[in-house]
Design brief:
alpha+beta, eight-stranded mixed sheet, five-stranded antiparallel sheet, 25 strands
């Protein structure tokens, strides 16, 4: 029997698989697709924000992404050399307001991200099976069974649905998915206008949004028309041309059309991320407007949070109750992202009232403290898993750039001041820092104290490394 089945071989599923492997579990990834490069899903670029960049650095993946940047011809690119840090509903947030030491984000096509994560995960030893569509699941007393198209089954101790917004896993597990219906239709197409100068790009126009320069060779529109109808119907050149004409207020002609996709602001979140032996991550747990580019990062951070916890539980080194902290920590983070993406959609609606609100927001973002707040929110840098902790570092991401390619927790301290019996799970890192602190495998601080104090360290070590964890 498998330790963990992961349904879905996209970026979230692949990162989770690698995290589980590093935590000592043996995951099996079941991917419905045939393994071919899925460029059709890569319209637009995927943004990797500062926090996810830090997570990738933690796993030693920075070199792989740097190599992609060097080989790319303007498609995948680092943002460090660009003053634009991001935006909030099209209102720019600039690099020079980023706190000192923050990791730089980057953008790339999703299939490139998938290839890097697939190479990393399979290089570790993760098993990935393609052409394996999961159509049902059955929870048993000591296992969960994934039923594949054709009737064959795979069993595991736990199963994680990373199978997208229409998740079969979520539906078959009976997990509620409350939220709000779509109010707008977005379209992105590989297209070219006969007269590019006829359309003025704008994030907020009388008819909605139209942009011809967000990504070279692509055109984007957004109309507040109540949402798309049948999203499975292929986007046509005529539909895209008509949308551009409506939003821009001028008749246009397309001389090139290479297909496209639709999106909406359908916004929903799973009531819980765990139901018995079934868990959810990524879009299976939450969907929202792509404005602001936070969805992928939210899912990747789900994977980082869940991987080490599920690994300890599967190996019998931690109680099953540790899995409840996954929903407890990640659900509020998802709620915040859903809130700010709803706010961004509201700020893009046509009309004089919204135009006035955008002017007020521009004035607000000119205040350095306010801009830092929005940058931190968009980059996941404001996450605090323990807001009531006795030490300000606990619950926050490690304040030093660290690397743990093997996925172990790290005890950061001055030489000789704190000692841990290295048991293969906790590694001592010497650093001339003001505080000693214990870093969870996902990069967040589980314990911290002034040098020389060890109160609570034994319990924290047991949390991050299991019941046979290191002692002091």
């Amino acid at each position: 029997m498998n330790d963990v089945i992961i349904v879905g071989g996209g970026p979230v599923g692949l990162l989770l698989a690698g995290e589980l492997w590093l935590a000592g579990a043996d995951p099996l990834v079941l991917e419905a697709g045939d393994g071919a490069v899925r460029r059709s899903r890569s319209f637009g670029l995927r943004g990797i924000n500062g926090r996810t960049s830090q997570s990738l650095r933690l796993r030693g993946l920075t070199e792989a992404f740097s190599k992609v940047q060097k080989e790319a011809s303007g498609v995948s690119r680092l943002l460090k050399g660009n003053r634009a840090r991001g935006h909030f509903a099209g209102l720019p947030l600039v690099e020079n307001e980023v706190p000192s030491g923050a990791a730089g984000g980057f953008v790339l096509e999703q299939h490139v991200l998938e290839r890097i994560l697939a190479d990393w995960a399979t290089g570790l030893g993760v098993r990935v099976r393609t052409d394996c569509e999961v159509v049902d699941l059955v929870q048993e007393d000591s296992a969960v069974r994934a039923v594949l198209a054709g009737g064959r089954s795979e069993r595991a101790v736990y199963l994680v649905g990373c199978d997208g917004g229409r998740s079969v896993v979520r539906k078959r597990a009976g997990i509620a998915f409350p939220g709000t219906d779509a109010t707008m239709t977005g379209r992105v197409a590989a297209a070219e206008l006969a007269d590019p100068g006829a359309v003025r790009s704008t994030m907020h126009g009388p008819g909605g949004m139209v942009h011809t320069s967000l990504v070279s060779g692509e055109i984007s529109t957004m109309e507040f028309d109540g949402g798309p109808g049948d999203r499975d119907t292929p986007l046509t050149a005529e539909e895209m041309r008509a949308s551009i004409s409506r939003v821009a207020g001028v008749d246009v002609e397309l001389v090139r059309f290479g297909g496209g996709i639709r999106f909406s602001d359908n916004t929903r979140q799973a009531a819980t991320y765990r139901q018995g032996r079934v868990l959810l991550a990524g879009d299976a747990a939450h969907v929202h407007s792509p404005i602001g580019g936070q969805g992928l990062n939210l899912g990747l951070q789900d994977a980082m949070n869940l991987g080490w916890k599920l690994g300890l539980v599967v190996r019998g080194l931690a109680p099953e109750s540790l899995l409840d902290t996954y929903t407890a920590e990640r659900h509020p983070v998802g709620e915040r992202v859903l809130r700010n993406t709803r706010a961004q959609v509201a700020l893009l609606r046509p009309g004089p009232q919204v135009a006035a609100l955008r002017e007020v927001m521009e004035e607000t973002l000119a205040i350095p403290a306010a801009k830092r707040h929005f940058i931190a929110m968009g980059n996941g840098a404001d996450i605090d898993y323990a807001p009531d902790a006795v030490h300000p570092l606990i619950g926050r991401f490690a304040p030093l750039p660290l690397v743990s390619e093997d996925g172990r927790a790290l005890l950061v301290a001055r030489d000789g001041e704190v000692h841990a019996a290295a048991n293969g799970h906790v590694r001592l890192v010497e650093a001339n820092s003001d505080q000693a602190f214990l870093v969870r495998p996902d990069g967040y601080v589980a314990w911290a104290a002034p040098h020389g104090e060890t109160t609570g360290l034994t319990e924290a070590l047991a949390l991050v490394a299991g019941t046979d964890g290191a002692g002091v």
